[in-house]
């Protein structure tokens, strides 16, 4: 990235007995909507807090807008944040909450009130300025928190799992709201979440973290289709991993042997030699199912046999769990409702799995 | 603000908690000037040191000084200690004070437990609020005036005897002995003991009680085997506090009895008033503190959670 | 002819149990009533007999009279003592609330070595017998030349009252999630400004309660004031001195005044700070 707006270099944070962030590097472009994702305890919130200045890094550097943030305390950073718990000031009115950052910048009382009022209008809360926080609904409070964070027209907005505490409907609405805001304001959004759906829907780029390290960054579709390691493959989407050993490399393809058979998979950029331990990934929604006695699958497609273990209703799709002899874990295949019905899938049924080998993806085997 | 300055000041305020675990203390946010804790902390610290810690430390120092010609002079003698610790008066006073305080503690607990139980479990929320207010008020309102009132009530020509003689019984000598002394000490300690136990009882998980009743316990059983063990720390706190207050009290022994034998507090005041024997009075004071430290320490030890011995199976 | 039907047997048992429960309930309420009567008696006696025309309170009553109250109001020494108590009480209340807030906030916000020692230093004074405290403070203050002033009494009372103030305010602070303060920093308030604009207003009920409670503690305190005050008597000290003399009917009247002031202060403090398990502590 040529001129990143936010730059983390070797950013590290240790707490007593817990190494939360282990020296990560990340560049964020101006105006980008970046989602930092990972399981609990992976360090994503700590990273966000270090950007905001609420935790001081143990090592490494943090640059925002071309300034080194070392020694700059939180209240001078202009990195407003939206908390999961909203953290609205309980004894101030809605308007006073939104005016707060403006007053800190020494904007006069009248100018502050006016600007705050404009932002309340913009967020659909016009006329509610005199209410107390406790008189608002959850969604309204959420919008007050956003207004309060954006009222100073900052260059960056930080969000720490802002939608996690909301019920599904509200979450959907707020998600759309956030996307709209980002489009209109065109400022950098750094969004921490553990929910894939939010990250996929909102982010220009995703950062997957685990155990204090960045596992992968990339566009949502790239992370989804091309996970670089087993962790990401297991964390994002629904993927099946097959462990095996490289037999040979030929013409950009890897031939590998595995307990469930031999497969040919497109080679990744990294050089592999025979004997290397690898895994390959085939996504659950890329596997075709057919009855065992069905005719030949498309030529060149990989093929497996297995027994249906069960079906799990997910909504518009179902996940079929299939036992494949020789494999330690079950295969998961995602199928639309109507496909399941037309195939008449039921537990105990023997089926045939197949996929286009070009859709598989090879990874270094997890340690 | 330079990074090195931040780092060294930050060292003194190392966070102990994991991020996100807010519990009893928030982790440190080092990115804030260290001027604030100093501005806040220094006045309190200095005030307590100058007006509390220093006087007490000075007290210990005085125990080694001497009084010559009614003037206190620095010295280093063990004389005061040997005289007081060996003195019969002191022994009697110590024994008496210990005895009296123990009786008060036992009485207070016996009275406070059923009262607290009733308040916590048998009153409505509104009644409970009123009860708590009625208990808090005496704690902070003029103990000395209330002792005077008891004097008036219990004296030979007092109100109680007026009532007793009015119905034809002979007048009872109620003032001047152990009875009136305990009345006075309970006036001081009972409200606090009841309050401590009310809060403890209120904090018990009601589902425990329901479970016990469900398993066939009678009310008495629930009380003895579920409630009392559950508030054990509070019982010990109430006992320790009661003992502490009774042990150090001056007013009740002074005005509710004839001060024979004197309690330790009265001994201190007498020693000071007659001949300004500060060193000797200080010895008594330090000795009292030592006893209290032992008692409070014993209380904490008793109240500590005992780990069950691990069974190897 | 037929054996007793089970229904009858059950009824008997239940009735007996209900009777037992009712009796035990009655006993419990009765006991509680006795206890409160015990605690109320001295206060009632003082107030009621302050209006008794007789010199010495006894039954039967000597008739309603305001003469003792009038005598108290005209007594110069008592007026002086009362004024001293007010001065000391007000000063104690203000300083204790400020220091108590500082101590509570430090304990709430930071983790540091010696934290428990610090908290103990502030919390300990009420646990030390007042006689010892008074004696120690007198000895020390006279050594450094501060003895015998109203300010000295106030300084010592602050030591006691700060403990209560810190406890009340710390309780209230426990309800302030750390994120609210962090949000203030995040939105441009320096930590000092955040304390003034966010933390202090949040603690307002506890601050007010601490003010009244500290005033009550000081107003009621006689032992330290007696040791340290020298010729400057506070009202309780005046009472103490009167008690050591002959029976004085004015004591009832003074006592009534003192009780009214103390109880008012305590009830005011309670109005702002309700301590109930599981409930937020502030009513404001």
Gap from first CA to last CA of chain C: 71 Å
Largest interface: B-C, 100 and 92 residues
What is the strand tally of chain B? 2
Query: Count of helical segments of chain B?
Result: 14
CATH superfamily of the largest domain in chain C: MetI-like
Strand tally of chain C is 0
User: What fold name goes in the CATH topology slot of chain B?
Assistant: MetI-like fold
Q: Can you write the helix and strand succession of chain B as a string?
A: HHEEHHHHHHHHHHHH
Largest sheet data of chain C: none
Could you characterize the architecture of this molecule?
The complex is a heterotrimer of chains A (367), B (313) and C (284). By secondary structure, chain A is an alpha+beta fold. In chain A, 25% of the residues lie in helices and 35% in strands. Chain A folds into two domains: 220 residues, P-loop containing nucleotide triphosphate hydrolases (Rossmann fold); 127 residues, Beta Barrel (OB fold (Dihydrolipoamide Acetyltransferase, E2P)), CATH 2.40.50.100. Chain A is elongated. Chain B has 313 residues and is mostly helical. Chain B has a single domain, classed as Orthogonal Bundle (MetI-like fold). Chain B has 14 helices and two strands, in the order H-H-E-E-H-H-H-H-H-H-H-H-H-H-H-H. In chain B, strand 1 and strand 2 form a beta hairpin. In chain C, 74% of the residues lie in helices and 0% in strands. Chain C folds into two domains: 49 residues; 205 residues, MetI-like (MetI-like fold, Orthogonal Bundle). Chains in contact: A-B, A-C, B-C. Chains B and C meet through helix 2, helix 4, helix 5, helix 6 and helix 7 of B and helix 1, helix 3, helix 4, helix 5 and helix 6 of C.
